[in-house]
Structure formats: C-alpha cells, structure tokens
C-alpha cells in the first residue's frame, strides 16, 4: 500500500537546513524519524521535520551523543499513521534491546484510523528496511517473544489502564504536595489484565515528568500531556521509588528491562526484605503480586526467618505474629500502589484473605481503588479466564465462544508434549507446565539424571533453572512449576493437571493432600497456624491451576491425570 523512502542525514543544523530546502515535505508533511548514535536512539513523529530537528538540537538530544537522522517519508502517510508507526517502532526497539530508547512514554497510541490494518502490514516493510541497515538484531516475532518487549514501559494502554494511570498520577501529585499525607492505592485485576505493565508504565511516566525539559516539548494531544508542567516537576524533584516483586524470576526479568530504560534502574526493583532493611524511606513503593507477600510464618530458610524477626523488631519494637511484609512496606513508604489478584495466592504464608480484604475495603472507602478488566494476554478474552476459574471451583460452566483461541483437550500426555514442541517451532515461547504433584527427584542436590514425572510411559523432569526458566536452554524438554511461570506470558501452554486435584462421582472437586508435593504449600503457618484443612489446600491448588491455565496467549493444551476429573473437564473443554 505504501511507498516509503528513508532519507539519511547527519544530526547537524547546517545539514538539516540544507535538507529542508530540497523538498516541501521536509518542512510540512507527516513523517516518522529516528535519531541514533552511541547505541542510543530516539523515535519521533512530526509534520514539521526541520523545526523538530532544530528543537532536538537545542535540547537534551543535542548533547546525548546522537549523530544520525533517518526520516521515513511516504506520500500516503497521515498524522494517525505516523503516530501508530512511531508507537510500533518504539516498542520494537525497546524489545530488541540493541539500543537504549530515549523516548518518554507519555501515552503511545493504539487508535483506530482509516485502513489501519493495511498500514500496519506496511510497517513490517519499514521494519525490515531498518533491520537491513543493522538497527534491529532480530525479527518481529523474536522481539515480541522477549521479556524486554513484554515488560517494557513503552506500551499502548487499554482504556481501563489509561484511566487508572491518569487518576493515579493525579492523586499522587496531589498527595505528594502535602508532606504529611500517606495513602494506599489498590489496582485489582485478573490474570492478563496488565497489572505489572501498569506499575512499570507508572514508574517511567513519573520519572519522565520529573526530568522533563520544556525545550524538548510534549505532543499536546498525547495521553498524559497535562502532567508535564513545572509544578509537577517540583513535586517529583526528589522522588524515591521502588518496585517490590516477590517472585525471584520475574524480579530479575524486570531488572533487565530497567537496565535498558533511561530514568529507571535495576536497583529500584527490590524484595520486601530489602525494603524492610532499608535505612531510608521511599516516597512511593509499587508492589506487584501483593497477594504473594508473606505473613509472619516459617520462611524457606533459616536466615530469612531471622531477617523477618529482626525487621519486625527494628520497625515495630517486637516480633508480633500479626505483622506482615505489607506492614514493612507501609512503614517504609509514604504511598503504596498495590497490584492484587487474591485468586493467585498459592501458599499458606502468602498474605491472608482477611488482610487482602481489609486492604481492598480501605482503598475503596478512600476512592483509591482501580479495577482492570480488559484481557491483554489470553486472546480468548476475559470470558475464558472466568470460565477456567468456574470449572476449577466445580461450578456449572459453559464453554464460551473463544474465537481463534486454540484450547485443546488431550488424552495422551505424549501427544500434547509433541504438539507443544511443534507450536514452539512455529511461534516460539511454548512450554509444558504442571501442578506441583510430583516430587522433585532431579533436584541438583539429589539425582539430576532422575525423572520426576512419569505418565503413561512418558518421562519428564521438572525445570532445572530457578531463574528465567522459560528462556533457559532445555526448557522445551522440561516441565515448569507455578514458581517459574507466575507473572509470565507464553504463546502456548501445555498444562498437566496432576493428581493433586480430583473429582468425585458427583463432579465435586477436591484436593489430594498426599499427591501435593510442595512442602511449603502444606505448612500450618501464618494465619493457618491453627489448622490447615483440605478445603484450605484446595483453594491454593485451584489458584495454581488457574494461573497455569491462563498463561497461553494463543492457546492452552490440557491433560488431566485423575480419570473422573478428566471426563468432567473433557465435556467442558473439548469443542462441540
């Protein structure tokens, strides 16, 4: 559809002025441009290329080591096309990781416009032309499968995300202007609604507002342009932020993203222990997967038990059983933004349902509660997520219209494993995952050559890597547990529902304690110290499978070990 050209020139005033006189479109036409140098890059769009380049030369870009300009010109481009192409290129460059992207994220566009699908096809031609010049190191599918792409702050927000971000920034700026004000905001959402993305986006946006230089300008029609004013810069001048991520693997993935993102830093991504041990307070602490924060309970290691005790004594004067890691965060920060989905709690020492309920009620009463509903991960939409949770609760459920979503039921785990291998070869990022219903015999301290999972003659091992398992060598031949995939996206998930969850002849779902192998998942600890019933265990096991069955963006394949549950789920999951 398009017939674009790439014009190349030095990032130099005389060269830009000479180039401007060569064609009227260089001074008055919608274009997209790139400025790069020293492994840094800026992507922009404008209708007045010469004027915009002069502004950049007079601003921070002029002293950032950038020395080359590429201007993408097409006689069919309009403003909407350029905004969309700019957004795509920013996201692709960020996900590729070859360049540090200098852009702010004040609202990338995902608007509809005339013949958008046709234009977006042509964006792939633009990408390949730039890739041929060495600006990209990988293909689009390879980029879009990376954590750098998925966790990047350069995102086009959904409507409910954008509303939440705008309201949160407005409220925070008001609160920060009052030094004695303290607040707790809650963002609640089902799997795949982008809670982690909202936290990362907010941190980048606040840093951009803080460091904004007037000479660089903000597009007046950008989503959050209203916040880029001097009084807000003043309110954020000494802003100290942190992002707490309870899961180690996801925490390290986000640290890699922050390492590649100007104004963010890996040191901002912390554990709850690090916040509790900090010598200074934070202005804002974001908490991803707040439901995975710990109660005062038996920790996975002796040193962590001592740390829990010492932090409680240091902050509150004594080690009371009621104190949690959330209490540490609230003591160490003026404002907290908590990202919550109670149906993803998977162990007894996670925050108790009572604590989560109290936090939600307080946020609602203070009008600091935000709900995300738009499904960003699973292409089948929010109806699929609710369908999965309903069948795990043993409730009557009808398979919704899933569109092109690839939900398949398998009677043979070997065939499912082969199908996942085929999908990985086709689209990448396809893995086998399972509930923790088999002992970890192949643990490095035991017998690495042993097999952990044996079903119908098929032998498999649990994940070797504890960090970034999905991208680790050999992961396609292994089976990931809940602790390796929570918070991550897959293209296809092959889910083995183990014998830890079963159904009786009436169809009621129950937990099999003897088959559940996570020792930390069965402890009488925290709010369960007085007793941990099979019904309590069932809640956690259901939550685990609820997470596993909502990892696949393009499809989910399912195998069920318990014969009675298998027949029940076959009727519900298999297409009619």
TrEMBL record:
Pfam families: SLFN-g3_helicase (PF09848). PROSITE patterns: GIY_YIG (PS50164). Residues 28-101 form the GIY-YIG domain. SUPFAM superfamilies: P-loop containing nucleoside triphosphate hydrolases. It comes from the Bacteria. This is GIY-YIG domain-containing protein.
